[in-house]
Amino acid sequence: MLLNIFNSVPIQHYIFLSAVLFSIGVLGVLFRRNAIIMFMSIELMLNAVNLLLVAFSTYHNDASGQVFVFFVMAVAAAEVAVGLAILVTIFRNVHSVDIDELKSLRH
Amino acid sequence: MTITLACFYFLSAVAILLGLMTVLTKNPVHSVLYLIGCFFSIAGHYLLLNAQFLAVVHIIVYAGAIMVLFLSTLMLMNLNEETEQHKPAIAKISAVIAAGLLGLVLVAVLHRAEAMAIPGTQDVSIGSIKNLGRILLDEYLFPFEFVSILLLSAMIGAVLLTKREPVNTTVS
How far is B92 from chain A (nearest CA, A)? Predict the structure, then answer.
């Protein structure tokens, strides 16, 4: 027993921080036209959720939450690899990653 | 104000600021760099929460692998400030309003949430490699194996998608 972080930092602080980070991610998806920046905003949202998972895992003394963060990280890595591969293919054909120009499925 | 609370506020401010900079900055390469900083501050949060192993893995996977992938893709496409397209002002304003409302609703809903009683003592070894490895390979063995299959298929998919199709010279 070293220290209990939740004696000094209430769990609500972590909830608010995660909510704000998630909203910033949503803002990025809505705000930008560059598809790569939108991907990065999705990463930010995933990280907000990861942070809250770890916070509650520590709060409840249960390591399962941290194991779930592992899985989220693995899925995020797979998602980024496939997503960027699709974007590279799109860029090769359309010469743009502007989502407003990707409205139609054919070009 | 204890030192832990001060650390929390500092890391939170850095994370939120760098997150906002990621979204708002015009140059995509700067965006990536700001996001790496944001991930480092989140890793600091993990350290604060006694999840040492996750903090290290977070830095290795996100800052080391995923962001490098983003950066190399950006450089491959040669995107910079001049080529960056911007949404019309009305779309930007509505995006800010929508995201702000979402944040407001989330905070307002979670504001009144009752916290469960804290267990008196906290096990500091909960985030250690030993403990996590035991749980991962004991309770979560099947998901673990499926994740390996997922990563393998993602790898094959990425290679297949980016491979240039051979030009078919025979006219069908």
Answer: 6
